[in-house]
Amino acid sequence: MQNLQQHIDNFITRCKENGLSVTPQRISIYKALLANNLHPSPDMVYAEIKKENPNISFATVYKTLETFEKQGFIKKVTPLHNTVRYDIVTENHQHLVCVKCGKITDIEIEELSRINIDPKILQNNLLLDYNINFNVICEECQKKQNN
Ligand SMILES: [Zn+2]
Ligand SMILES: [Zn+2]
User: Which domains does the chain show, CATH number per domain?
Assistant: First the structure.
């Protein structure tokens, strides 16, 4: 597991490699994504960033997230609940998705991260990636239901 500074250094290196300028805004947006992986929506990232950068616009945050995604720094979680959610973890993993509150939690089941799929099943399509989400009702939502 890398520490925060290593993550940031790595980010800066990758920006340079990809010809992307390293601005304080980009760094603070990346830090906000690293802080705790709640698989935030653009709104959630914006709310977080605004605390330290009151002058930043939503459009800037939104565009930066799109850029990060294009560069492969973050991934979109399969569209759920009609809003984009971003994931700082780009390695293959699975998600628990609460169907009530939309909370997304990372889990890793080894076998599911390395499935060998018969090319016949793929029908000559080139497999890029796959997502496995478990739809759940989280503990908090279960408690609310019982009240
Ligand atoms: Zn829930
Ligand atoms: Zn995730």
Answer: 4-87 (1.10.10.10), 94-146 (3.30.1490.190)
